[in-house]
Write a structure and sequence with these properties.
This protein is α/β, with parallel strands linked by helices and 419 residues long. The chain is built from 17 helices and 16 strands. The chain is globular and about 65 Å long.
Length: 419
Amino acid sequence: MADKFKIKDISLAEKGRLDIQWAESRMPVLMEFRREYGKTKPLKGQRIAGCLHVTKETAVLIETLAAAGAEISWWGCNPLSTNDAVAAALAKAGTSIYAWHGMNREEFYWCIEKTLEFKPTLTLDDGADLIMTVHTKKKEYLTDVVGGTEETTTGVHRLRAMAHEGALKYPVIAINDAETKWDFDNVYGTGQSSWDGVIRATSVLIAGKTFVSAGYGHCGKGCSERAKGMGANVIVTEVKPTAALKATLDGHRVMKMDEAAQYGDIFITATGMKDVLVKRHFEVMKDGAVICNTGHYDCEINIPDLESLAESKRTIRANCEEYTLKNGRRVYLLAQGRLVNLAAAEGHPSEVMDMSFANQFLGMVKLAKDGKSMPPGVHDIDPAQDQMLALTKLRTQGYSIDKLTPEQVRYADAYLEGT
């Protein structure tokens, strides 16, 4: 059994199991699927290689996939996002898992390759690193793979670029682009969990501060709205005109980062692009400015530029490094520039991940059934699935909604009707 996993400490399993049980109590949609599909076993015979942050919510997904008949091998998709207790609980229960908090770059890529050794038939990805490995370093595994899913914005962008060049060799369902993912997970999940990470790492007062959101996509919007709700003054920086315009109509100031860098007390990057905060920005920041990232990769904040300006550096709190610059000002970098909501906190609340991971589960079921007949490329989720999941979520929360009458249905399609 020991060869099936590599984790931090198996003795943490009991604590991890309690965390998982707490998440289960907050994820009614996925638990309903576990009961339903645990009987029919639509994933029997499938080998799923998974690449997702090892959180208590991910554990609920893993064990639901297993209940539906799948064999699982898992890897934590970020060096700092693994909950070691949850990883221990999964390993003790028999899941093949290679993940621990604080792995280095060499260990990170070793884990990817270990995850693939059992020759998966399906891949479940967050950021597309697993898919990229199968398409580059480990092409011998392509033969068995019938399809995959992708969780996040950054990964979908990478895969669409691959598909455009004809480099993507199997069908991948864009989980991120489901309305029940991006309009809930990205907005409400990222908004709450990112600030959870900032507060745990700093304990600063948010009210009265000037917050700078780099980016006003779904994640940036979520962070900005939560900041506004806690009493911060919000500045948004953007490169997309329509996103910037939305920010102004939501009551935020919009300006270039070169200007915003002088005013911000707290910065969160949420763009998916490299070099959002660079040397010239650090040079003009206030003494005490806090900077962090909630994008998938750690390249949004140019840490080498920050290092070059610093005359000293120290870890002053957990996940909080103080850089004293040569101009005497101090800049505080959180979570080493990695996902602040996962490295410095616990990730998104279970309730919002319920829908995202329900989409992942249904994506795996669809690929197991239809993957061989689907062409290579990036595929969208059926809009009907979005509505079904939203309705299921509402029902589990005790809400009910109206339905159109037959006459209203006819009216909706009666194009000759007018005033």
